[in-house]
Amino acid sequence: MNNNLHEINHPVLQHKLSILRDKDTNSRAFRDIMNEIGRFLAYEATKNLKSSKVDIQTPIMKASVPVINDYPIVVSVLRAGNGLLDGVLDTLPFSAVGFVGMYRDKFINNTVEYYFKLPEKCEGRDVLLLDPMLATGDTAISALDRLKQYKVGKITMLTVLISPEGLERINHFHPDVEIYTVSKEDGLNESGYLLPGLGDAGDRLYNTK
């Protein structure tokens, strides 16, 4: 396993993933489960957030307790990344949010950006990049390129599924990026879909197919 890949094999997460994989899971249930997985991924990816001690008064006594110094910026890759967003924000409610809109255009054989918005004063800030399906890695690499143009801090990707091919390409172009995932898949089919996968996450989230 690559040192930058963190595959979470918790049985609860694997059970939830099995529900997502089922073609008969409807959009409402798919959204709910995706949000739940977002909470788990955010929890795992932020274990090393820096904190400092502050003094408070409990109902019993004064105590020195830890508080987080600086929440990471959360950036969602549209549209499928929004499936994880609410769950991540449940875990990190004070994070600012950015959005990256990109798609792969098969006619020009390149990634097209149609929207990009980051919070102000993002330079040096750590980022959690949300994209539940990392297949060929094209969109993720383009999003990482753009984030680094803004001189953000450490970038961590949260994804539900990742292919060996996509992982290899991200490690090549962005070896500093850590990735948290629920499953490293077997590979890709001729159409670029993950195997065994769960289909098109955006379509299943928003019932568009």
TrEMBL record:
Stated name of the protein: Uracil phosphoribosyltransferase
Molecular-function GO terms, alphabetical: GTP binding; uracil phosphoribosyltransferase activity
Biological role: Catalyzes the conversion of uracil and 5-phospho-alpha-D-ribose 1-diphosphate (PRPP) to UMP and diphosphate.
Source organism per UniProt: Halobacteriovorax marinus (strain ATCC BAA-682 / DSM 15412 / SJ)
Gene Ontology annotations for the cellular component aspect, listed alphabetically: cytoplasm
Keywords: Allosteric enzyme, Glycosyltransferase, GTP-binding, Nucleotide-binding, Transferase
Main EC class the enzyme belongs to: transferase
Residue intervals of the Phosphoribosyltransferase domain: 9-208
PANTHER family to which the protein is assigned, alphabetical: ADENINE PHOSPHORIBOSYLTRANSFERASE, URACIL PHOSPHORIBOSYLTRANSFERASE, CHLOROPLASTIC
Database matches in Pfam families: UPRTase
Keyword Ligase: no
Reactions listed under catalytic activity: UMP + diphosphate = 5-phospho-alpha-D-ribose 1-diphosphate + uracil
Pathway connected to this protein: Pyrimidine metabolism; UMP biosynthesis via salvage pathway; UMP from uracil: step 1/1
